[in-house]
Specification:
The structure is a single chain. By secondary structure, the chain is an alpha/beta fold. Among the domains are: about 270 residues, Alanine racemase (TIM Barrel), CATH 3.20.20; about 80 residues, Up-down Bundle (Methane Monooxygenase Hydroxylase, Chain G, domain 1); about 50 residues. It has 21 helices and 22 strands. β11, α10 and β12 form a beta-alpha-beta unit. α12 runs antiparallel to α13 and α12 packs parallel to α14. The protein is globular. It starts with 5 loop residues before the first helix and ends in a 7-residue tail after the last helix. Bound molecules: pyridoxal-5'-phosphate. The site of pyridoxal-5'-phosphate has 15 residues, from α11. Belongs to the Orn/Lys/Arg decarboxylase class-II family. SpeA subfamily. Its EC number is 4.1.1.19. Keywords: Decarboxylase, Lyase, Magnesium, Metal-binding, Polyamine biosynthesis, Pyridoxal phosphate, Spermidine biosynthesis. Catalyzes the biosynthesis of agmatine from arginine.
Length: about 625
Amino acid sequence: EELYGVKRWGAGYFSIGDNGSIKITPNHRLPDVTIDMQEVMDEIIAEGIQLPAVIRFHDILRSQVEILNETFAQTIEDAKYNGKYVGVFPIKVNQMREVVEEIMDAGEPYNYGLEAGSKPELMAVLAYNENPNALTILNGYKDEDYLTLALLGRQLGRKMIIVIEKFSELEMLIPLAKKLGVEPMIGLRSKMMVRSSGKWAGSSGDRAKFGLSITEILNIVDLLKKEDMLHCAKLLHFHIGSQLSDIRKIKEAVSEGARLYAKLIQMGVPLEYLDIGGGLGIDYDGTSSTTDSSRNYSTEEYVADVVYGVKQICQLEDVPHPNLVSESGRAITAHHSCVVTNIVGEIKNTGAQFDITRAEGEHILVSNMRELITAADMHPQERYNDAASFKQSTYEAFKLGILSLEEMAKIDTMYWQILAEIHDSLDRETFVFQELEELEDMLASQYLCNFSIFQSAADTWAIGQVLPIVPITRLNEKPEVRCSIVDITCDSDGKLSKYIEGTEISDNIPMHTLRKGETYHVGMFLTGAYQDVMGDMHNLFGRLTEVHIYCHDDEDGDFYIEEVVPGTSAEKVLETMQYNTDYMAKTVKKWLDREVRKGKIAPREGVRWTDYYEKCLAGTTYLKV
Ligand code: PLP
């Protein structure tokens, strides 16, 4: 457990069972109801579901919705805060219909709503947020269609709040609303002065892409007054960035936002809601610190800072407490899904062996390396330096045509054998070896994993996000191999380069040796926010098959697969790139027919080849192993 940090990043949902398999406790209200991940894998395999697959634990999703809403409700009660909490889920974080439906269902008792940031998202939330008491917050840049669809929402009796990002949006909205005779609910997004830290620091400050400056907000207030529409201004919004790792930035933003709210109220703007945006972080790396992949606060602390922070400023400014809105996406969805897959091979430098027997008249470089093989009592640093230097000379000699391929293979075999011996002989406690990390990296195996980083873990590649990767079983066995995880795309960027090892982030990770005839399953966790929907089709690897899991409420750990959503077939992926797969199949058939006519292929064999090609078109884009 310590090695992979499961408990630390697991947030109470993930731990290791006595049988050495990942154990899931998906319902925060039922701590005795657990799921054994090995049993889930057995079921997936029994049902013939191809790996890699995304597993969604719907009970985790529901738990996260409940925890956030109940924490706000409890804190509001404790603080004797006069407003309510009416949160929204920003669907950009995970637009999967099943995810959005589950969130709406779990959030119904709390009037939990949705947020959209584009026209298609708006069309989705219009249809899926049917609760007239829940908010629909509309962010992002808008055109006339966007605004008209929002007004349609008002016609349906929904609390749709159009958040103005730019002055020109209001200039477009006012005549449109008047023409259609629909009264809009308007929000104002403020550009914040506080500078957040982390990967999304650009979401705040003067150069932020979104939001209105104080001057623009005042101009908007004037325009609304002039148009007799000031009563439509209902909400003040800010968002200083996602994955906020430092609670101090959140406190600062809350006090800046609350102060602005209070001043606007004092000017006569009838705001009812203060929307603090997203940003509630996730402890991906389990360090509870201010690294970009962690956070130095709990959800309770975050909520308390918001509620008490706003309350205090309202008291100081003598204004009513606003209803509080937050747009947490990552915190709601990250834990609920993981990617499970298998290791399909191992690439290791020490793997290939060549007969190193001395040959008559062999080159001096071969003999030198051989001497190092037997020099086990030599100082490890010196032995390492000599081996590295002979290896470099070998390369130079090969380029000059001095060494034969056999000699190269012998030197290579001996070189890796020496490095492995040096590594194994090092007593790390007592011996300082300068290049230890380099040596470990060189000797680490590469485990070839049946998935695409670009499809399933885009942020690990794009922004250096750490995601936990853990073997699903054998967690009660000591892992013997250090390795890195590489994917099956033909891109050298297709690898994970940061791993959780204890409380550290390492360049490689201990895993178990692969056993012949036994599948080694690994899981990549906390992928439910952004990773699920931002993946691309590099190398034409398509979306993964999805397995949706629910838990029975009894204590025997029983679960059921409620739905399997098939992954994208090769055919579908090709079609999105404008290929005509009928034409492709016909072309292959045409060439086969030609060979049949020439008598080179038997007619029946020709039919078999055609069928096979068509079957592969309909099949998975990943490795079938
Ligand atoms: N609201 C807005 C306006 C955003 O831009 C984002 C994402 O950056 C979110 C909410 C969701 O943020 P998070 O996933 O950090 O909760």
